[in-house]
Design goal:
heterodimer; A: 111 residues; mainly beta; 12 strands; 50% strand; globular; B: 114 residues; 6-stranded mixed beta sheet; 4-stranded antiparallel beta sheet; 46% strand
Chain lengths: 111, 114
């Protein structure tokens, strides 16, 4: 069945470091792919999405490219900030617009 | 505010007691979802409401769990005879009919069963 597999955390980086959080998926067809973010004490919010193969989603300096050849949707940011500290979830739609979510990757950025 | 709200934010209960968790979706959103986030786990889908259609209950883990949505708006998730393994954060989300793929989440209810 459809699923997403996300890089295990936690991840700790220094400010201005490069971030990659890996996400791979298994799906029938070519669904949209999503990254959600959960800041401390807040609900999940959509970070970015890509609706078809080779699309690049971007927001707040984060990017992810939908790569069908490697079934991946890795999240990247060139220079992280302390305010990026959060839990990041890769997500794949299932029937009825529910989602399969990854297990989440906790990111802590230290000054 | 126009976001999804949930209450209570925290709930501590004793094993065997019933609990009710409330979700107020964004006004006008036709779809409402409940998820559970257990420690160290990803989000687990529980139940989905879409308009006046019969809800998709395929994610409910046992018959102790039930949910209803009154008037197409507010939803209540009820857990009967709570068990310690029910301890988790319960998240509610809603989405609009025009953009069903984008879900807006509430801050969650943190449930602790002693």
């Amino acid at each position: 069945g459809d699923s997403v597999t996300q890089m295990e955390g936690p991840v700790t980086l220094s400010e201005e470091a490069f971030l990659t959080i890996n996400c791979t998926y298994t799906a029938t067809g070519y669904p949209s792919l999503f990254w959600y973010v959960q800041y401390p004490g807040e609900g999940l919010q959509l970070l970015l999405k890509a609706t078809k193969a080779d699309d690049k989603g971007s927001n707040k300096g984060f990017e992810a490219t939908y790569r069908k050849e490697t079934t991946s949707f890795h999240l990247e940011k060139g220079s992280v900030q302390v305010s990026d500290s959060a839990v990041y979830f890769c997500a794949l739609p299932r029937t009825g617009n529910q989602f399969y979510f990854g297990t989440g990757t906790s990111l802590t950025v230290i000054p | 505010g126009a976001g999804v709200s949930q209450s209570p934010s925290n709930k501590v209960t004793e094993k065997g007691k019933d609990v009710e968790l409330r979700c107020d979706p964004i006004s006008g959103h036709t779809a409402l979802y409940w998820y559970r986030q257990s420690l160290g786990q990803g989000l687990e889908f529980l139940i989905y409401f879409q308009g006046n259609s019969a809800p998709d209950k395929s994610g409910l883990p046992s018959d102790r769990f039930s949910a209803e949505r009154t008037g197409g708006s507010v939803s209540t998730l009820t857990i009967q005879r709570t068990q310690q393994e029910d301890s988790a954060v319960y998240l509610c989300a809603s989405s609009s009919s025009r953009n069903q793929e984008t879900q807006y989440f509430g801050p969650g209810t943190r449930l602790l069963v002693l």
